[in-house]
From TrEMBL:
Stored PANTHER family: UPF0173 METAL-DEPENDENT HYDROLASE MJ1163 (PTHR43546:SF3), UPF0173 METAL-DEPENDENT HYDROLASE MJ1163-RELATED (PTHR43546)
Alphabetical keyword list: Hydrolase
UniProt-listed Pfam families: Lactamase_B_2 (PF12706)
InterPro entries referenced in this protein's UniProt entry, alphabetically: Metallo-B-lactamas, RibonucZ/Hydroxyglut_hydro, UPF0173, UPF0173_UPF0282_UlaG_hydrolase
Protein name: UPF0173 metal-dependent hydrolase DDW13_06585
Residue span, Metallo-beta-lactamase domain: 8-190
Family membership: Belongs to the UPF0173 family.
GO molecular function: hydrolase activity
Length: 226
């Protein structure tokens, strides 16, 4: 059964097409993470939205231990990881913002995000399989292009940062929901990891309900069937 599990902060586990996928695996220094790095020893794919420490996270260590895991990220970020950490190109799926890339029955795409990043442009990620499309916005502010993302990819679920300060806040994220129009639900991420991004997810829940969409508030470690 396809499923999604929030691993705290922006880290998200997906089980799709018989494959285990993690997005932005920030685990060791994440005080909300419900798992340890050994949890990823049999994962198939890592998707990284950008190179900030709380998103690139433990990617290199996971890939060094789990030799089957592949990486999906921008070419520039993968080039940095190849040169700096000797991650081989045959274990990476290079891409940039654009169309779908096929990976063993799973469709992957990168989207624009409005944020900062040192070794590549920041992105969101689209993952589609089993008749389900998920949009993980990465770290981003509110931008009008979210409407295009919604129109092109038609996500069933959206994962949106709501912590404010470095990303959208709950109110801005609810505006993003109205542009993206997720068909089955929207899940807030990237909040309450530290006091700097402390918000009440109940505010987001109310804003989203008022707009006629389904908010799904998860606790770190909690899963849903997709």
């Amino acid at each position: 059964m396809p499923s999604l599990r929030w691993l705290g902060h922006a880290a998200v586990e997906l089980n799709l097409q018989g494959k285990k996928i993690v997005i932005d695996p920030f685990i060791k220094n994440n005080p909300t993470a419900p798992v340890k790095l050994s949890y990823f020893d049999d994962f198939d794919l890592i998707a990284v939205t950008h190179d900030h420490y709380d998103h690139l996270g433990d990617t290199v260590e996971i890939m060094n231990k789990n030799k089957k895991a592949l990486l999906f990220a921008t070419w520039d970020l993968e080039n940095y990881l190849n040169k700096e950490y000797n991650i081989p190109w045959d274990r990476m799926i290079p891409a940039n913002v654009g169309g779908y890339v096929e990976y063993q029955g799973i469709k992957l795409a990168l989207t624009q995000a409005i944020h900062s990043s040192e070794h590549s442009d920041p992105t969101g990620v689209i993952i589609s399989a089993d008749g389900i499309t998920i949009y993980h916005a990465g770290d981003t502010g509110l931008f009008e292009g979210m409407k295009i993302i919604g129109e092109v990819f038609k996500p069933d679920y959206a994962l949106l940062p709501i912590g404010g300060r470095f990303t959208m806040d709950p109110y801005q994220a609810s505006i993003a929901v109205d542009m993206i129009k997720p068909k089955k639900g929207v899940i807030p991420i990237h909040y309450n990891t530290w006091d700097l991004i402390k918000v009440d997810p109940g505010d987001f829940e109310r804003y989203v309900k008022d707009k006629g969409y389904k908010p799904i508030i998860l606790q770190p470690g909690q899963s849903i069937e997709l």
